[in-house]
Amino acid sequence: MASAPENEKNASAPEKKTLTLKSMINNEEFVVDEHVALQSVTIKNMVDSDCAGDVIPVPTISGEILALVIEYCKNHANPSASEDDLKKADAGIVAKDIYTLIDLVLAANFLDIKGLLEVTSQKIADSIKDLPHQDVREIFGVENDYTPEEEAAVRAEHDWAFEGFP
Amino acid sequence: MPVKSLLRFRCICKHWYTLILNPTFEHHHLDHQKSNNKGRLLLQHYDKHTSQYVYALFPDKTLATTSYHDLDYVPGKGIVAIDGPINGLFCLFNYRDHFIIWNFAMREFRSLPFPYHPKRPPHYKTSLWSFGFGLDPITNDSKVVLIRELRNGLRSFPDGVFVNVYTLSTNTWRHLDDLDDLLSKCLTAYSRTGVYLDGIYYWNASHHRVLTFDMGKEVFRVILGPDSTPDIPTLLTLYDNHIALCCLRLIPLSTIDKCFEIWVMELEGSWIKQFTGPLPGLIQRPLGFSNNGEFLFVSISPETWNLDSQVISYNLTTKEFRDLGPKGYDCLFKALIYYESLASVKGGKHKRKGKLFDSIAARYFFMIENHSKFTYGLVLFMRDFQMIKTRNTKPRYTDIDHVKVRGMLTRVWESSGCSVDLPEI
């Protein structure tokens, strides 16, 4: 089904196909090559099932985050990039503060980009692993639903893990 | 994410608590480490100065640094044999009656009940034992299999082979019968532990053979090992997710001292020589692969000739050797690749706890392996028992159910074919 109109499009536009991604938060638009954008399984599904218009709206992702996602996809769409280069580039993309990383991981999850999801999650894990749990609670905006007694009991289960922490 | 951090994050909120306790999360956590090759090398060795086994953990793949600082909580100081890890758990055994399942990262352990075998005559001595720690592939449950070859006095042939299988989820031992013929011809003193892969446990067996135990079906089999390998010192280990047999061959009348061979089992009983190369004469025995692909050996230390052995790593491609640091007796080293696990094995915290009547009964009986001592142990126990009853004194072991122990003792005594008048309860 999808192949017939696609062939038509290819015939009429032999040059590189592009897609426009639009952040619904601040209405920023990004024009990217199709093969770059298709690393997102979500976008690929939209294109494959022919429900992608000229402009693909991306809800809940700000332009700043979308720019990072596209940078990642561009790096990984480059066939001549070596594994080491990609690792360095990935490290550059995730060298951000924890709040940006959380937005990025949500974007990677929504757009379904496995590699980006993994590298961002690992970076978040590395940044929070040595933090006290109170700070982690604040970062993720988690409400503490323990009573002080309950929290003390959970803490007592593995008291040694809290050595050196408040 | 280290287990230590996750344990702290259980304090964040109730949802995180249940998430981190969830078995699916536990599996993902372990799989993530395995797929990213994040295992760490754990080296058990015997420290002569403190006369204790110590565990050296190498925090990363460079094997440049060692940490000992976290290890003051190691359970059971006298416990010497270690096997695993299976799903991040180790199995420790004291060569006699005491098993411990240990989660290194959670600092939790569980003492197992004593592996009582109803048909075992109490005065028989254990002449050989082997054990293995693995996973039932169907139920995903950890199991320990213990094989004991027993002799009556000084006879030159074994009088029986007794097999017990422990299941972690039910915390019980069962015994397997009628395996004497198969097993008594296989066991060797060099095969106390072996290696586990995909539901099967493998031990070195005598006459170039390998003994296997299917952890799910609980059946033993004997398969052929590679031809013409020397009997000692060989090691069964894992190589690229295959069973591999590593051996040192002495080459008389040649310019090289020793030849190192790695045989890999491609299919059951079919072995291919994967590596062969000369080694210096100081090398004593193979220890296994480390997590960076190098091979570990026990070697005589050139400075303290013969007194202390050391662990060296050997790069199979560059043929370079490196001293890793830990020193100790040559035959008491063990190298394991360790992944952290959130699996809880609660049941003891640095002390034996709970219902231990069978372990204590074992202390009274099974360790004293002849008739006169057996009777003496029985008398001691009964005296204790009478004292509790008549004088209302505190028993020596408060966690024993004395009535149960008495019943058990009587059964053991009767099954040995002797009779004795026990004082009435």
From TrEMBL, chain A:
Pathway: Protein modification; protein ubiquitination. InterPro entries: SKP1 (IPR016897), SKP1-like (IPR001232), SKP1-like_dim_sf (IPR036296), SKP1/BTB/POZ_sf (IPR011333), Skp1_comp_dimer (IPR016072), Skp1_comp_POZ (IPR016073). Residues 114-161 form the SKP1 component dimerisation domain. Keywords: Ubl conjugation pathway. Residues 26-77 form the SKP1 component POZ domain. The keyword Iron-sulfur does not apply. SUPFAM superfamilies: POZ domain, Skp1 dimerisation domain-like. It comes from the Eukaryota. Gene3D superfamilies: Potassium Channel Kv1.1, Chain A. GO terms for biological process: jasmonic acid mediated signaling pathway; protein ubiquitination; ubiquitin-dependent protein catabolic process. The keyword Coiled coil does not apply. Involved in ubiquitination and subsequent proteasomal degradation of target proteins. Together with CUL1, RBX1 and a F-box protein, it forms a SCF E3 ubiquitin ligase complex. The functional specificity of this complex depends on the type of F-box protein. In the SCF complex, it serves as an adapter that links the F-box protein to CUL1. Belongs to the SKP1 family. PANTHER family: SKP1. Part of a SCF (SKP1-cullin-F-box) protein ligase complex. This is SKP1-like protein. It comes from Actinidia rufa.
TrEMBL record, chain B:
Residues 81-328 form the F-box associated beta-propeller type domain. InterPro entries: F-box-assoc_dom_typ3, F-box-assoc_interact_dom, F-box-like_dom_sf, F-box_dom, SCF_F-box_component. Residues 1-26 form the F-box domain. Pfam families: F-box, FBA_3. SUPFAM superfamilies: F-box domain (SSF81383), Tricorn protease N-terminal domain (SSF69304). NCBIfam families: F_box_assoc_1 (TIGR01640). This is F-box and associated interaction domains-containing protein. It comes from Actinidia rufa. The lineage of its organism: Eukaryota, Viridiplantae, Streptophyta, Embryophyta, Tracheophyta.
